[in-house]
Design brief:
- The structure is a homodimer.
- By secondary structure, the first copy, chain A, is of the alpha/beta class.
- Chain A is built from nine helices and eleven strands.
- The first copy, chain A, is about 40% helix and about 25% strand.
């Protein structure tokens, strides 16, 4: 603990989406955007996302590539009761640990199915297979647990269940200094502000400046300028530079500017 | 051309989404699902998706990893007029070719901006930078072109523009034998059918069988079983096996089954 002198830690993450149904287009992923926003709000930088099919070598290789690069890897999908749910086995393989029915998971599932009057069969037992050394990740929606091993957090693919699992792990995650963000609506087209915006970006190296064109119902092509930084003073300085630039450009374009 | 004796070609693809705004969660990606469905309908297998930030080394490394593994790589994002649009330069770097203002792209943009009465400034000229040897990809929405170099197709991030670019390249893509797909609504819970479904999957090695739980408003937990194959006869055989299994299981569960 070096107090104020130590640089703020940067906590990073990757998301690994596992599932043929996303790659075939049959299911439209809703988890990437949710996790991205969730992690940003916690002060964790999502740095990479991969989507891979239900194929062991693809899952294991992606896991090993990602877990050595980022603070955390969040996986979604492939932890249900059917033959195509192979995520838990792949995670065990990536970490080189054994996998077996986990007594904690069995207790959770048995209690759930007893309450429902449902048989705990072989397929449902598959959902209690958890790599050795993993912690259980609880979910309030379906009870079926995910798990957390090393820096990898394994979650369901069904959005409501995935979200419940994120809520379970969030209080235990390391978090960094939150990335602050301000959006300035330019009321100008990207092409009119691009050169000057590039100069502002160069003059503010600790601030990330993004430019996002969109169609404005009232005035046609428009642009959102997003200014992001961890330091609030640097953020404010860059935002003011952007606003001053917009005033200058709009004055210069004057009445000749097309809408 | 070996005619009927040659095995059906399999054409594969990856998507590389480029953009800080997707990773921060500010913008929710709509392109992955669209491209996935589009390629599936063409007979191209989407095998992997990656999302990377607006950082040169990340883009170049991902491009080089993907373009050597798949028939095609489709990129989205980072080809606008601002400083954070670095995709074209990264593609040139990945291929080891030069990049400069492209006379075809300049002509397209100049015609467009002349018609609009808009100045062709330095920022807009940035959109005409195209790696040497690339073909132009047209779009009817904004005119600003994408490009195609080697097996990499570079498209805009704005969905309507990206979709117009896909339509431009689609007729020129190699396509394989289309993956056929049938969905069987199980009217049963995943856990009730998992074991038998696994046996059907093993007995039908040329058929991909996926199981997707969902919440049914009327009957609670339900499951869609998706059967996929390139051979229509093998598809039908597997689908019939699934249907017969469902009849057996529902009879066995009978009246004691919870809904």
């Amino acid at each position: 603990m070096n107090g104020a002198l130590s640089p703020a830690p940067i906590v990073t993450a990757a998301v690994l989406v596992i599932g043929d149904e996303i790659l075939s287009g049959r299911t439209k992923d809703k988890n990437i955007g949710f996790i991205a926003e969730y992690l940003t709000n916690l002060g964790i930088d999502l740095r990479e996302v991969r989507v891979v099919p239900d194929v062991e070598t693809e899952i294991v290789d992606a896991l090993n590539a990602l877990r050595h690069r980022y603070t955390y890897v969040f996986t979604t999908g492939g932890i249900g009761p059917t033959h195509d749910d192979i995520t838990a086995d792949c995670v065990a393989k990536a970490f080189g640990v054994s996998i077996d029915y986990d007594s904690r998971a069995v207790a959770i599932m048995k209690a759930r199915f007893d309450a429902m009057g449902t048989e705990m069969n072989e397929a449902r037992m598959r959902m209690t297979r958890i790599p050795k050394g993993a912690d259980i990740v609880h979910n309030k929606v379906s009870a079926a647990p995910g798990f957390w091993i090393g820096n990898v957090i394994v979650m369901a693919g069904v959005p409501s269940i995935m979200q419940a699992m994120l809520d379970d792990v969030a209080p235990k995650l390391k978090t960094g200094v939150k990335m602050l963000s301000e959006t300035v609506r330019a009321d100008a087209r990207e092409g009119d502000i691009g050169s000057e915006l590039g100069q502002i970006a160069k003059a503010n190296p600790d601030v990330i400046i993004g430019s996002y064109p969109f169609m404005d119902e009232n005035r046609g092509p428009n642009t959102n300028i997003v200014v992001r930084a961890r330091d609030p003073q640097k953020l404010t300085a860059a935002k003011r530079a952007v606003e001053a630039m917009l005033v200058r450009i709009k004055a210069a374009l004057g009445s000749v500017a097309p809408r």
